[in-house]
Specification:
Helix content: 40-55%
GO molecular function: transferase activity
Mean pLDDT: 93
Number of helices: 14
Low-confidence stretches: none
Radius of gyration: 21 Å
Keywords: Transferase
Structural class: alpha/beta
Strand content: 5-15%
InterPro entries: Nucleotide-diphossugar_trans
Distance between the termini: 47 Å
Order of helices and strands: EHEHEHEHHEHEEEHHEEHEHHHEHH
Protein name: Glycosyl transferase
Length: 408
């Protein structure tokens, strides 16, 4: 993907293959002398047993510029938490494993419930939100980066390129979003971005008209990537979605809080692969079916907040327009894949498009029936205002868990 195209809405920082990793690492280490950098890793316990995370840790162990690594551990019991401490102990950097299911952390959740501020459902969004809260409580980092723990093609250059735009004090960027081609096992992947988000944004522009927000989202080459970096002063006001709309929600928050000139996307890999969700057409509460519905709702909510009026007729028209746009894009993706020797199962791709079209209607109906629904977890500024001791208590709880349940 070595081009130098700029879309005019947000800056695109390419990998022109003219600079090696050692050079980037040297400069990042210099930045880190005065601008401490923290990496957040939201992890399920099951990912400790997969093939991706051990390799990720091997790569991270060679990164000299990280001040701290914060690991949010979900779906783990006491024995698994002890094992997780041993598992992550190979990291030479200062690191903290937050056991989100511990009695202490659950007591803190109940404290928030009494204030009406608790996250409504478990998942990646709540995990990320908790880790950000811990980072804010530490009050010693200038830059935060986040990526998933299931990246099969991970290498430390991905992290260096992701962090560089916000770590460089000479750059204006407050947020950097990673992008890459989704290919693996000889196939073109990334179905939800290719077959839902891209044609949906085109269809929305045709149905509801020009919107700056739509142009902004269309500027991102991979809007659903789980890799982003931010300067930490932006974090206390960041609203984290608790559902599958996390990535779109964070981009929407950047649109709301930051000037376009302070947001960029950065090319971090030539090939990226991670675990794949099932389409799950038989169960709308799981897999890509649930993900597609939540993403649609996130986009509809943001457009409505900016003044767009939605009705059942609008959603019916949007479904038909989306379907035609998606089929047209499928032709482009098919040709692109064939030219590069990659496989595309057109039958499965069209079945995905059909499911996504139905979920546009489903998401629209949910939006119309529950216009006040908000999946956002309260900002940390709001939590601090309601309970000024909460962040410090959460940091102490995480430390107490490590001490009480020390790895044997």
């Amino acid at each position: 993907m070595a081009d130098f195209h700029q879309n005019g809405n947000i800056a695109t920082l390419h990998n022109l293959r003219t600079r090696d990793l050692d050079d980037l690492t040297y400069e990042l280490s210099a930045f880190a002398e005065t601008r401490k950098i923290t990496l957040i890793l939201p992890s399920l316990y099951s990912e400790l047993e997969g093939e991706a995370l051990p390799h990720i840790l091997d790569e991270l162990a060679q990164v000299p510029y990280l001040h701290r690594i914060v690991i949010g551990l979900d779906q783990a019991d006491e024995a698994q938490f002890r094992h997780a401490q041993r598992f992550f102990s190979r990291l030479p950097q200062t690191h903290m494993v937050i056991w989100n299911d511990s009695p202490r952390m659950q007591a803190l959740v109940q404290r928030l419930e009494r204030l009406g501020l608790a996250p409504q459902e478990p998942g990646k969004g709540r995990n990320v939100w908790t880790c950000i809260g811990y980072l804010i409580a530490c009050a010693d980092s200038a830059v935060m980066a986040l990526h998933d723990c299931d990246i099969l093609t991970y290498d430390r250059e991905m992290l260096a390129r992701l962090i560089y735009p916000v770590a460089n004090p000479g750059f204006p960027y407050q947020m950097a979003k990673g992008y890459y081609p989704r290919i693996g096992d000889g196939k073109l992947n990334g179905r939800v971005t290719r077959l839902l988000v891209s044609p949906l944004l085109i269809a929305l522009k045709r149905v509801v008209g020009d919107r700056d927000y739509l142009d902004y989202l269309r500027s991102f080459r991979y809007p659903l990537s789980g890799e982003f970096a931010m300067r930490t002063p932006t974090l206390p006001d960041l609203r984290i979605p608790s559902d599958w709309g996390l990535e779109i929600g964070v981009l929407s928050e950047a649109w709301r809080n930051l000037a376009p000139q302070s947001v960029c996307q950065v090319e971090i890999s030539d090939a990226y692969d991670h675990k794949h969700q099932e389409l799950s057409p038989e169960d709308a509460s799981r897999g890509l079916s649930r993900m597609s519905t939540d993403i649609c709702k996130a986009i509809f909510r943001k457009l409505a907040a900016d003044g767009t009026v939605f009705t059942p007729n609008v959603f019916r028209t949007l479904k038909a327009t989306y379907y035609r746009c998606a089929l047209d894009l499928l032709e482009s993706f098919y040709a692109d894949a064939r030219m590069n020797g990659l496989a595309v199962d057109r039958h499965k791709e069209e079945k995905s498009i059909e499911l996504f079209a139905e979920n546009i209607i489903r998401a629209g109906q949910v939006f119309l029936d529950n216009p006040h629904e908000s999946p956002f977890i309260p900002t940390w500024n709001r939590v601090h205002s309601a309970d000024p001791e909460f962040l410090a208590d959460m940091r102490r709880a995480a430390a107490a868990d490590l001490e009480e349940y020390a790895a044997g």
